[in-house]
Amino acid sequence: MTDTTNNSNLDRPSVVFQGEPGAYSHLACLEALPDFEPLPCLDFATAFKQLSSGGAERGMIPIENSLAGRVADVHHLLPGSGLFIVGEHFQSVNHHLMAIEGASLEGLKEVHSHVHALPQCREVIRELGLRPVVHADTAGAARMVAESKDSTIAAISSELAAQIYGLNILRKNVQDISENVTRFLMMSREPITPALDSGDCITSFIFAVRSVPAALYKALGGFATNGVNITKLESYMEGGSFEQAQFYADIEGHPDTRSAQLAFEELQFYCTRFEILGTYHKSSYRKLQAK
């Protein structure tokens, strides 16, 4: 994996992502931030550390997938990281079945990929009678297949991975459901908050409510009474305790609007913790989905 500890010789600003070259996070970097140099990191913690320490100017972090749900670890890394969400990107995930040159569908015995990618391609795996093998990420599986020189094993990964590792795509778009999309957060060390009148925004924040009856109901009541739409609300546990849940939320709107200010005031009355993670322009993908 590329070393991300020294990028001072790069002419372009850099963006870190988790995974190996050819991962869908890499593809998201190329599509959403084409003027940035993508830098792979072993895990999310390393990517956050690289960005926090000045080793990169942006981070491309997946937070949820339309089929697999939320991405593990990210919710725990966001709070207290000192980083800010400055944008969002929705990346289509198109899985392809690939193998080394000379391999054929009839000769395959195994298929390697990420734990979430394999179940998304059950039909082709069943049709070809392949034994699924889990890997840390899709691009890593593609690299392993290329290095193995074994014509009986294949990988499920991106077209970018096939290009990087010199693999032949034996069958394209092998996912069972075509609408497979991952939402990415673009992170920075400094907030880049859009002007109040600059267009539709999303504001992301975390909070924890006091452990009393109806605290969550009352805390969220201000969003309803002030006409603020909550587009995402997720709970997760921290610190090994089952006593108090943390919440991640997205709302439509800018925090400087009067309606959002009133909603946040009411929320904080019932909170033991509250932190705005960022305000950023709404992706055009949301507008297309709303039609």
Strand content: 25-35%
Count the strands? 15
In the CATH hierarchy, what is the class of the largest domain?
Answer: Alpha Beta
Alpha-carbon distance between the termini? 41 Å
Mean pLDDT level: 92
CATH fold-type name of the largest domain: Alpha-Beta Plaits
Structural class: alpha/beta
Strand and helix order: EHEHEEHEEEHEHEHEEEHEEHEH
Question: Helical segment tally?
Answer: 9
Radius of gyration: 21 Å
Low-pLDDT parts are: 1-9
Q: What's the domain count?
A: 3
What is the CATH architecture assignment of the largest domain?
A: 2-Layer Sandwich
Task: Please name the fourth-level CATH homologous superfamily of the largest domain.
Answer: ACT domain
Main β-sheet description? 6 strands, mixed
Q: Percent range for helical residues?
A: 25-40%
Shape: elongated
Textual characterization of the structure:
- The chain has about 290 residues and is an alpha/beta fold.
- The protein has three domains: about 15-90 and about 180-190, Periplasmic binding protein-like II (D-Maltodextrin-Binding Protein, domain 2, 3-Layer(aba) Sandwich), CATH 3.40.190; about 95-170, D-Maltodextrin-Binding Protein, domain 2, CATH 3.40.190; about 200-290, Alpha-Beta Plaits, CATH 3.30.70.260.
- It is about 25% helix and about 35% strand.
- The chain has nine helices and 15 strands.
- It has helices spanning about 25-30, 45-50, 75, 120-130, 140-150, 160-165, 215-225, 260-270, 285-290; strands spanning about 15-20, 35-40, 60-65, 70, 85-90, 95-100, 110-115, 130-135, 155, 170, 180-190, 200-210, 230-235, 245-250, 270-280.
- Strands 1, 2, 3, 4, 5 and 11 form a six-stranded mixed sheet that branches. A five-stranded mixed sheet has the order 8-7-9-6-10. The chain has a four-stranded antiparallel sheet with strand order 13-14-12-15.
- Strand 7 (about 110-115), helix 4 (about 120-130) and strand 8 form a beta-alpha-beta unit.
- Helix 7 packs antiparallel against helix 8 (about 260-270).
- The chain is elongated and about 65 Å long.
- The two termini are about 40 Å apart.
